[in-house]
Amino acid sequence: MLRRASMLLARRPILAARARPFSTDLPAAPSADATFTEAWTKVIPNMDPPKTSLSFMQPRPPTPSSIPSKLTVNFVLPYASELATKEVDMVIVPATTGQMGVLPGHVATIAELKPGVLSVHKGSEVTKYFVSSGFVFIHANSFADIIAVEAVPLDRLDVNLVQKGLAEFTSKLSSATTDLEKAEAQIGIDVHSALNSALTG
Amino acid sequence: MAMAAIRREGRRFAPLISPRPITAVRSSPLYPTLEDEGPLGVRHISTQVVRNRMKSVKNIQKITKAMKMVAASKLRAIQTKTENSRGLWQPFTALLGDLPSADVNKNVVVTISSDKGLCGGINSTSVKISKGLHKLNSGPEKETKYVILGEKAKAQLVRDSKKDIELIITELQKNPLNYTQVSVLADEILKNVEYDALRIVFNKFQSVVSFVPTVSTVLSPEIVEKEAESGGKLGDLDSYEVEGGETKGEILQNLAEFQFSCTMFNAVLENACSEQGARMSAMDSSSRNAGDMLDRLTLTYNRTRQASITTELIEIISGASALEG
């Protein structure tokens, strides 16, 4: 009993002192949560309803009437958030249909990415990453979310290993028998040739 | 001083001084003391039992303290990974929203739990929430299936919901958690289970003492289309142009799979963090309890020891005074 009281007391200052933005509760609960909470309390009255992902997210700003000057980019990987709400001028993403340039005021789009170079332009500086694949969501309020499975800055790539990998997968494709092996070898070739062109081009 | 001590002890342990009250002593429920015979038939009340208990409680205290340290170090390692992965599911929720109240026919509840025990109540909370979701989504034409990750949830759910379990996955944390492993897992689940909505139940790690049960919903592309058409939260999904691929459906399919693997990755990491944190606090309270128990046992041990010394002294002294007088 004492421990629960001390936990309650401890929880308040923890909430106040926490600087992490992701754990703040939304000021007004969205309607989807309300229907869920209601339905839950009707069926299971003696347990608190579980929290949902929406309550752990900061709300996005609505679409402004005029085109904003900067594009806000979130570039996330499973292991890190490379860029979090960074204001940039332009990003060029390697979509499956080719390199796509994204400027503020771009129409809302969902695009799948293929292995290639992602470049972030801010003023005069350009940062380039090689992404393996992923998705990009461009929202109407000039927010761009880039989610990639793996991304490395270009200077971390080794030319020799790329050439070796390309040769290896080409030989694997010619010796492949089943469809699965052929598909795997083809994927290897795609990625390595993209790496190659990223390093040379 | 010895006489004063004897008088004090004698007052407290008057019943022990009477000749051979073996039955009275032996029937004591808590600490049955053994009597052993010394030379000249002098009775000593043995402190062996209490000493054994003290030794075992001290060992338990050492073990639980060590377990707490181990859990603390594992927590530190996995906490940075978890915080870095928190950005991963946010873009999906920003795009597709979160519809836990979506009314669908085929629900799949993915319960994430730990393999090892001694971690407090987090696994029971997850199982209770999963059962609650099952109840919430029950109705005509609706079915809810379970996919279980972790031994503890398996043990609890196999007992009464055996027919609803689709897939059981254990030994998740044998190798350090990484995205490749989780995406292979997600692929397996998506291949083998038919679903309209996947609800992932896990404990979100807020701090070392606070773990919040959370449910993340991932909808299948068909349901997403349906919700988008009917307006409401996903109404403006149609305004998004879909680049690439032959059809919009193909991209949405890939999107749903990617969303599932990303949310799973974050959920698995958060649950692992919560497990270590809960184990830390459980082991901490265990050590504290063991310490309290040890204090009480020490007092009893000292009392028993002093009582036997007093008895001996009294017998010797009364024997000596009997010889004199």
Automatic annotation (TrEMBL), chain A:
It comes from the Eukaryota. It is found in: Mitochondrion inner membrane. Pfam families: ATP-synt_DE_N. Its main location: mitochondrion. GO terms for molecular function: proton-transporting ATP synthase activity, rotational mechanism. SUPFAM superfamilies: Epsilon subunit of F1F0-ATP synthase N-terminal domain (SSF51344). The keyword Signal does not apply. Residues 72-142 form the ATP synthase F1 complex delta/epsilon subunit N-terminal domain. GO terms for cellular component: mitochondrial inner membrane; proton-transporting ATP synthase complex. InterPro entries: ATP_synth_F1_dsu/esu (IPR001469), ATP_synth_F1_dsu/esu_N (IPR020546), ATPsynth_dsu/esu_N (IPR036771). F-type ATPases have 2 components, CF(1) - the catalytic core - and CF(0) - the membrane proton channel. CF(1) has five subunits: alpha(3), beta(3), gamma(1), delta(1), epsilon(1). CF(0) has three main subunits: a, b and c. This is ATP synthase subunit delta', mitochondrial. It comes from Gossypium australe.
From TrEMBL, chain B:
Keywords: ATP synthesis, CF(1), Hydrogen ion transport, Ion transport, Membrane, Mitochondrion, Mitochondrion inner membrane, Transit peptide, Transport. InterPro entries: ATP_synth_F1_ATPase_gsu, ATP_synth_F1_gsu, ATP_synth_F1_gsu_CS. GO terms for cellular component: mitochondrial inner membrane; proton-transporting ATP synthase complex. It is found in: Mitochondrion inner membrane. CDD domains: F1-ATPase_gamma. It is a peripheral membrane protein. Its main location: mitochondrion. GO terms for molecular function: proton-transporting ATP synthase activity, rotational mechanism. F-type ATPases have 2 components, CF(1) - the catalytic core - and CF(0) - the membrane proton channel. CF(1) has five subunits: alpha(3), beta(3), gamma(1), delta(1), epsilon(1). CF(0) has three main subunits: a, b and c. Belongs to the ATPase gamma chain family. Mitochondrial membrane ATP synthase (F(1)F(0) ATP synthase or Complex V) produces ATP from ADP in the presence of a proton gradient across the membrane which is generated by electron transport complexes of the respiratory chain. F-type ATPases consist of two structural domains, F(1) - containing the extramembraneous catalytic core, and F(0) - containing the membrane proton channel, linked together by a central stalk and a peripheral stalk. During catalysis, ATP synthesis in the catalytic domain of F(1) is coupled via a rotary mechanism of the central stalk subunits to proton translocation. This is ATP synthase subunit gamma, mitochondrial.
